[in-house]
Specification:
34% helix, single chain, 12 helices, seven-stranded parallel beta sheet, Rossmann fold, alpha/beta, elongated, 327 residues, five-stranded parallel beta sheet, 2 domains
Length: 327
């Protein structure tokens, strides 16, 4: 069996460390592991690969990969792989949603607390050497508690599930919009279907976007949907930038029709220097860091090695993506 690892990204952490291939060779001596540090040579290596670990591949490469039976993406989002040649093939697609879910959920809680306790405003006051106790109280909405607040989740995959558990433990009332509303979930006060999204927006103090990017969810938070939110509510996006109509969100923040936003993802990344979000004092930006952890590749290795064991044994894999649904 041949495993091809081909991961190349401008951000250092997203590239597979050299020890990953070395450890796989040690733990799975029957597997030929080929690690490419960029996409040079993929056309020569993919035709006889049985499995691949990659962010993306091209349609013509899939056509030439006659032996390929499994692709694993170290990301949670896999929309870039959902082209007809792969969707209509027998190739199994898995992703790392369960690797990223707990880490991103921690980030969500940090953003909620930062917005509730006005941490960004406090940092700006500190930089100006100002004791801004009264200013922070006068700035509306005021500093507030999150216990008793309502958290609305759009999406209840790994990130949504992990966020719900943590938020409920902090005393928040959590409601989730998910495709299968009858399934319920730990930490949830209510589960509603997509047709009731407007209800969730109207009830929530914090709205967290953690849905996959599909044709149905692209632009789902529109100008009209933003108007459904409370004026003192906050929007948090750790899903994908295109879930939101970004010009409409910038207008809502500028006009204070919602209180604030915390954004980890954007339609264009890196975020352009002329983006209006940089200068909005009620917008907290984190540069797509929600999934960052010093333990990232150890967590990846645990899933990859378990799935390799299952693959060799002919057992069901973890993190299988429904290619037609897109998640």
């Amino acid at each position: 069996m041949k495993l091809l690892i081909v991961l190349h990204h401008r951000f250092e952490l997203w590239n597979a460390p050299s020890w990953l291939a070395d450890r796989l060779r040690r733990d799975f001596p029957s597997i030929a592991v080929v690690h490419l540090e960029n996409y040079d040579g993929i056309e020569q290596e993919i035709p006889d690969a049985d499995a691949a670990i990659a962010w993306s591949v091209r349609p013509e490469q899939i056509k030439n990969a006659k032996k390929l039976r499994w692709i694993h993406s170290p990301a949670a989002a896999i929309h870039q792989l959902l082209f007809p040649e792969l969707i209509n093939s027998n190739i199994i697609l898995t992703n790392a949603r369960d690797v990223h879910g707990p880490v991103v959920a921690e980030h969500v809680i940090a953003l909620i607390l930062a917005l509730a306790k006005k941490i960004p405003q406090s940092v700006r006051l500190q930089m100006r050497h100002e004791w801004g106790q009264q200013a922070l109280w006068d700035d509306k909405p005021p500093v507030r508690e999150i216990s008793g607040a309502t958290l609305g989740l759009l999406g209840f995959g790994s990130i949504g599930r992990e966020t719900a558990k943590r938020a409920a433990a902090l005393g928040m009332r959590v409601i989730a919009v998910r495709e299968h509303a009858d399934k319920g979930g730990e930490g949830l006060a209510a589960v509603i279907g997509p047709n009731d999204l407007d209800r969730m927006l109207a009830e929530s103090d914090y709205v967290v976007l953690c849905a996959p990017l599909t044709p149905q969810t692209q632009g789902i938070i529109s100008a009209e949907r933003l108007r459904r939110m409370k004026r003192d509510a906050c929007l948090i996006n750790v899903g994908r930038g295109p879930l939101v109509d970004e010009p409409a969100l910038a207008d809502a923040l500028r006009n204070r029709t919602i209180a604030a936003a915390a954004l980890d993802v954007f339609s264009r990344e890196p975020l352009p220097a002329d983006s209006p979000f940089w200068d909005l004092d009620n917008c907290l930006i984190t540069p797509h860091t929600a999934a960052i952890t010093e333990r990232l590749w150890e967590r990846h290795y645990a899933q990859i090695s378990e799935n390799l064991r299952r693959f060799l044994a002919g057992q069901p894999l973890l993190g299988v993506v429904d290619k037609r649904r897109g998640y």
